[in-house]
Write a structure and sequence with these properties.
With 232 residues, the first copy, chain A, is α+β, with helices and mostly antiparallel strands. The first copy, chain A, has four helices and nine strands. The first copy, chain A, has two domains: 139 residues, Alpha-Beta Complex (Nucleoside Triphosphate Pyrophosphohydrolase); 65 residues, Orthogonal Bundle (Arc Repressor Mutant, subunit A), CATH 1.10.10. In chain A, strands 1, 2, 3, 4, 5, 6 and 7 form a seven-stranded mixed β-sheet that branches. A two-stranded antiparallel sheet of chain A has the order 8-9. The N and C termini of chain A lie far apart (49 Å). The first copy, chain A, binds a DNA duplex (27 and 27 nucleotides) through helix 4.
Amino acid sequence: MTYDPTVYPQFAVTVDLVALTLRNGALSVLLVERGEEPFRGTRALPGGFVRPDESAADAASRELSEETGLSIFPGYVEQLGTYSEPDRDPRMRVVSIAYVAFAPDLPEPVAGTDAAAASWMSVDDVRDLGFDHDTILADAIERVRSKLEYTTLATNFVTDPFTIRDLQCVYETVWGTTLDRANFRRKVLGTTGFVEPVDGVTTATGRRGRNAQVYRPGRAESLHPPILRAPM
Amino acid sequence: MTYDPTVYPQFAVTVDLVALTLRNGALSVLLVERGEEPFRGTRALPGGFVRPDESAADAASRELSEETGLSIFPGYVEQLGTYSEPDRDPRMRVVSIAYVAFAPDLPEPVAGTDAAAASWMSVDDVRDLGFDHDTILADAIERVRSKLEYTTLATNFVTDPFTIRDLQCVYETVWGTTLDRANFRRKVLGTTGFVEPVDGVTTATGRRGRNAQVYRPGRAESLHPPILRAPM
DNA sequence: CCAAAAGTGTTAGCCGTACACCCATGT
DNA sequence: ACATGGGTGTACGGCTAACACTTTTGG
C-alpha cells in the first residue's frame, strides 16, 4: 500500500450535454464544432466546466441555455452517467458528467451568441465526434428508447397542445417502427394520467381530414402497463 | 460574463459503493463506521478517492475488494449516478460517483483488514447515514427493484447452482411481495436465456420435500416480456 | 365525389392470474 | 402416514394485435 490517501488527487469536472429533439421527422442532437484543440474542427457534444459553487445539474441547465440561446431551456433534463477514463481528454484528467435533455422542436441557434457554433443534426448522420462522445450519444439514444416504454417521456418531445397522432410520431421516430393507430390511441387513453384532453378541437386549418382532439401532458410519470416495442 | 473558463476549477473525485446482498432473508447493504471527521462514529457507505491513473469503475472494483476483504469481488457492479451538490462534503468540494454492486451472500468482513469496520445491515434498519448517503442508498434500492423487472439481475444474488425457488425468493425479498410459485416458474423458464438447467438434481440432503432441478445463469441480460411487480 | 385523417368496433389468440392437483422426499 | 416442497394442469378474464368500418374535413 504505497498510496497516500491524505493527499487527494485533483480533477477537472465538466458536464456534457446530449440535447435531443425531433426535427424533420428525425431524432436530432445538438452539436457544436470545436474551435480549439483538441479535436479542433470536429463536432462534439456541447458542455463545459462545472463551477466551484454550482452542482452538476445546475451547470447542465446553464450550459443548455447558453448553447441554445434560450434564456430558459424548455425541456426535461436528467443525468445520464459519468465518464471517467483517464485518457478521455488528452490535455488533462477530466471527469465528465453527461446529461440528457429532451425538448420539443426548438428554433435554430442564433448567430452572434454562444450558440452560434451549435446546430441540430439527425442522430443517424452523426459519426466521429470528439472525445468519447460517440459512446455518450449511443448511451443517450438507448436511454430515450427504453424510457419511452415505461415513462411518459414522450410528452417532452411535443409542444403543449398536441394530438394523439403527435405522440405516436414520437414513438415511431425514436423507435424506427410503425405502430397501429387504433391500438396506440387506446393504450394512451387507457393509461390514467398520461394525457388530459383539452376541451376544444384543433388544427381546423390547412390540413385535410377530420380535426383531432388535443391533449396536454397528464400527471403520471410512469406507465403501467408499459408500451413495449417489438422484442427486436 | 465574469467567469474565466481558462482557469478550470479543481475537484476531489470519489466513488461511493452500495454493495447489496441478501442476508437472512433481507436486502442488506455494506456499511462502514467512520473513524474520522466529518461524521465520526456514524455509518456511511464505503468508498474512497479515485486515483489519478484509474477510471471510476476501476476505483469502485478496487474499493469493493478492499472493503469486503475478498481479493476479487464476486458480483456485478454498475454505475448508479453522480452526486455533486457543492455542500455535500463539509471539508471541500467533492464529486462522488456512486456504484451499485449486486452479490450473493458473502462472508462477514474479516477483522484485521481494511474491511474490519465494515458490516452488513438490512436496508430496512438503515437510517441517518453520513453525507448524502441516505439519498444514494434510496436511489440504489429503487434501481435494483426496477431492474429485477426487465433484466436478469436476480441471478447475481444467488450462487451458481440455484433453484427456481431461490430466484423467486430474490424477487419476493427485494420487492417485499409474494409471487405465485407456478406462474413464476413458467415465466422464468419461458424466457429464453434467463436460466439454463444443469443435468443433475440437487439438495438431496437435509431438506424435506422433493428435490429441485438446479440451474445456472443464462446468456440473456434483458427480459422480454418483463416480470412486472404489482402496480403498487 | 374523393382522399386523407380522426375516431370506433370487432374478433381471435395470447398471456397473466388464481387455484387445484400430483410427485418426491424426509421425519 | 403426513408434512413439506417441487412440478404440472387448467379455466377464466383481460389485454393485444390485426383489421374493418364510420365520421369529419379539404380539395
